[in-house]
Design brief:
With 264 residues, the chain is an alpha/beta fold. It has a domain of 181 residues: Rossmann fold, CATH 3.40.50. It is built from nine helices and eight strands. The strands form two sheets. The chain has a five-stranded parallel beta sheet with strand order 2-1-3-4-5, with helices on both faces. Strands 6-7-8 form a three-stranded antiparallel beta sheet, with helices on one face. A hairpin with a 2-residue loop joins strand 7 and strand 8. Helix 8 crosses helix 9. The longest helix is centred in the first third of the chain and has 20 residues. It starts with a helix and ends in an 18-residue tail after the last strand. The mean pLDDT is 93.
Length: 264
């Protein structure tokens, strides 16, 4: 039997099993702009999540809400926030969201990581991660004018080129740091629901914190630190070209050489 036939049978089995199981309708609440890069990244994530969900009996919806509307909600599965650090902390510390995954999509404030809030998951790279990556680069290339990004349109490894192509085809713009973060947050949620077969917020948060091994097209097996920061490689960019990836080869600690490592 050919590999294509075997894969086809496997998909048929998954689809038939999903018909027998109860459909999981996942609603993701979001506070932030409903246009621009981060929003388009989330839309890309939603498209891919629902495509996968067709075989697994899962559907995904993003519901934009204001802070006032958020305060009136009784039940929330996951929260995506594209806002300032003060707002993110205020939402994450709200008692009724204590066991809800709260994703920081855009803020690089170090104090969000240092706060070590148990439900806060930081997708964007922190100021300290940027500083550490740049220090590694400048130690070998003094005088360089490079800066640090979490994503770039010419990134090709780990199937990144395919993600860049899919996003640009769908949105008409290039994928940048914010759109990658929006896409990654939705994928983290859909990967978690697919694995635990539940949209229970507490179960999702536990899995994300302790068991996720995320493939965000930046290398497989990314996990969250105690600080809530997603471990990930970053890119050193000069004249809009990728000069290197950090952590640089040979740097002690690998991914944990970038940013705040643990809670005090």
């Amino acid at each position: 039997m050919t590999k294509i036939k075997i894969w086809g049978l496997a998909l048929t089995f998954l689809w038939s099993q999903s018909l027998l199981a109860e459909v999981i309708d996942v609603t993701i609440h979001y506070v932030g702009p409903t246009e621009g890069s981060v929003w388009l990244g989330m839309q890309q994530g939603m498209s891919e999540a629902n495509l996968q969900g067709e075989f697994l009996g899962q559907t995904y919806t993003i519901k934009p809400v204001t802070l006032d509307e958020l305060a009136d909600l009784d039940e929330v599965t996951a929260l995506l926030l594209a806002s300032d650090a003060e707002t993110i902390v205020a939402v994450a510390e709200t008692e009724k969201f204590n066991n809800v995954p709260v994703f920081n999509l855009m803020s690089d404030e170090d104090n969000l990581r240092a706060a070590c809030l148990p439900n806060l998951l930081n997708i964007s790279i922190s100021q300290q991660m940027k500083q550490d990556a740049l220090a590694q680069w400048l130690a070998k290339h003094p005088g360089s004018k490079a800066h640090v990004q979490s994503w770039h349109e010419s990134f090709r490894k780990f199937a990144a080129s395919q993600l860049n192509s899919r996003f640009t085809k769908a949105s008409g713009i290039i994928m940048d740091d914010d759109s990658w973060a929006g896409w990654a947050a939705v994928k983290l949620i859909s990967d978690t629901v697919a694995r635990i077969q539940s949209d229970d917020a507490t179960k999702m948060l536990n899995y994300l914190r302790n068991d996720i091994a995320f493939d965000g097209q930046k290398g497989a097996g990314a996990t969250f630190r105690q600080t809530g920061q997603l471990r990930q490689l970053v890119l050193l960019i000069e004249n809009n070209k990728i000069m290197a990836e950090a952590p640089l080869r040979g740097v002690k600690g690998g991914l944990d050489s970038l940013g705040l490592l643990s809670c005090k």
